[in-house]
Amino acid sequence: MLIEICCGSLDDAIASQAGGADRIELNSALFLGGLTPTAGTLLEVKRQVSIPAMVMIRPRVGGFHYSAGEFDVMRRDAEFAVEHGADGLVFGCLQDDGTIDRVRTARLVELARGRPTVFHRAFDVVPDPFAALELLIDLGITRILTSGQEESAYNGTELIRRLIEAARGRIEILPGGGIDPFNMSDVITRTGTRQIHLALFRTRIDRSCAARAQVFFGGQLRPAEDRIDV
Description:
Elements: E1 2-7, H1 10-18, E2 23-26, H2 39-48, E3 53-56, H3 68-83, E4 88-91, H4 102-111, E5 117-119, H5 129-138, E6 143-146, H6 157-167, E7 172-175, H7 184-191, E8 195-198
Parallel strand pairs: 1-2, 1-8, 2-3, 3-4, 4-5, 5-6, 6-7
């Protein structure tokens, strides 16, 4: 069983390798679902970690229908990641109606320069997952990360199993989303997957802000996925 760990920092990546992970997905801002990691994070992960690092290309929180400027940023980030050692790219671009953006997906596959590409959990909101599966196969995507269009992969195992069957080895299906050590074996058994994606956390106390606990630096505790501030 191949284990991929979702990482939000250099420390996460180092700990994942030490814990036996086979591969990492490198992000920033995991609380927001994962955004593009900083340049410094990527460079240090490639210097200090030897297992493959799939790099997230996601410029902002919210949905996956991007403006022209946002996609320009994604292209630049993809080029930088590949030039500086990314072992693959993770991304997801949708049309305003929730269907796969064929043109932008093809462009990011091209920018990966033969490295593995993952269409991330944007897949979990497409209206027809089987049509999307076939399109992503045609576009040359290596792998789909999915919770089976449910809040967690544990609840989406039936669709994940059907996707694995429909893929027939033409594309990899990677279950992910809400998987933990307690439900992992059930997800594996129910889907028949040979790889799994999970994030493992423990709380680290940072006392630097303890004197003013009422101060909050974020916007909202659970940002909406269907709107963004511009």
